[in-house]
Design a protein that fits this description.
Blueprint (H helix, E strand, L loop, with lengths): L2 H11 L6 E5 L4 H15 L6 E8 L6 H15 L3 E5 L8 H16 L5 E3 L4 H13 L4 H4 L5 E4 L2 E4 L7 H10 L16 H16 L3 H30 L1 E2 L3 E3 H5 L3 H14 L7 H11 L10 E3 L2 E6 L2 E6 L9 E3 L6 E3 L5 E8 L3 E2 L6 E4 L6 E3 L5 E3 H8 L3 H4 L4 E4 L2 E5 L3 E2 L10 E8 L9
Parallel strand pairs: 1-2, 1-4, 2-3, 4-6
Antiparallel strand pairs: 5-6, 7-8, 8-11, 9-10, 10-11, 12-16, 13-14, 14-22, 15-22, 16-19, 17-18, 19-20, 20-21
Length: about 450
Amino acid sequence: MTDFIARLKQALDKMPPGPEMVVGLSGGVDSVVLLHSLTQLRLESVFSSSLRALHVNHGLHPQADSWQQFCMNLCKDLKVPFTAERVAVTATGSVESMAREARYRVFAASLENGAALMLAQHLDDQLETLFLRLMRGAGPRGLAGMPHCRPLGAGILYRPFLDFTRAELVAQAQSASLRWIEDPSNADTGPDRNYLRHRVLPLVEARWPDYRIRCSRSSDLLREADTLLDEMARDDLESIGSHDGAGLELEPLLKLSAARQRNLLRHWLSLLALPVPGWHQLQELSRELGGDFSQRESGFELDGVSLQQHRGYLFAIKLGAASRPTESHWNAVDQTLKSLPGNGQLQARHRIGRGLGRLHADNLEIRYRQGGESIRLPGRPTKSLKKLLQEAGVATWLRCRLPLLYRDEHLVCVPGIGPREDCAAGPDEEGIVIDWHAPDFAQRPA
């Protein structure tokens, strides 16, 4: 066993055991070396997992189909099962980014429970990623670089070559007389990564020959720092408390330093499976939490959610909660439950001396807030609907979706709050109490 193969074996020893290894095979030197080396270790019975290769054809290069054919022929020679998936990459945004997202969707979908996707990213890839993220202003998590192992789909993603340099992989390929594909676009210095690889890092290496070791050490330290920040966030979250696993209690949150607030918010949002906001957004959110945040009807919008305060808690509300439901009709005398598509359901309960009188409940029109509504509840003065909803503690994100019951163009009942005085059941009369069971619009831990 050569030193190269022995080092790869040591890397595999750190990998969680699984039923299958799936090599992401592009046809480039890195993935070709990985597949060839794994077949050698399989011959020596180093691992018991089955082995196959997966090629993703993006169709972005004129030679894309010939590259797929090359990968298929290589796998045939190595006696490794081969599959290929073609993906469509849209022209919007960064083509490189879109291709990567499409590729990883294929990878995730291909993994059975416990299987491992094996990618050939190496130390030079890691350091390029570090420099690129540094230029984008990344924090400790981003600068920690690519992890050796992380969950992906039903399995894991594993990078056994992260401690190997590109030069070592090329030398191994040459010593084994391997053939591989050279993508001509890799020589184009237009993309940031290629510019860094061909123009910047050679100058860095000329000045600091051991920069790979130094930068790797920094990434390791940043990974440790990120782990400590996560531990602190978990402790803070446990001490602060939440509302039924969804809301974050504001008063103890605001007692933390601004830096710990942002750290906790970042951690909490990640637990909700939401994209972690950037530095500027977190700064703005932290400032607003200490100001008049509770008075914002629209909330603080992030990707896919609106952060809103209610009764001392911060909730992440799905943006769909702000949409207006469809109006409809209901006979609450005969129909106990009324389903509202995408908006929960109304429930009618017959009670003596309470609720809406039967004569006013048989031909109801379900509408939603337009603004300016008012109603006089039994024994109370006329009040605006806005004031009543505030007094009842109805969450701001539910107010536009609260079903309002009309009859003959008059608002006769607000579910959960009460009927109009002149439409209410008398003391000995059978009435109908109407409640609204709203959907849970709060984002919860995945």
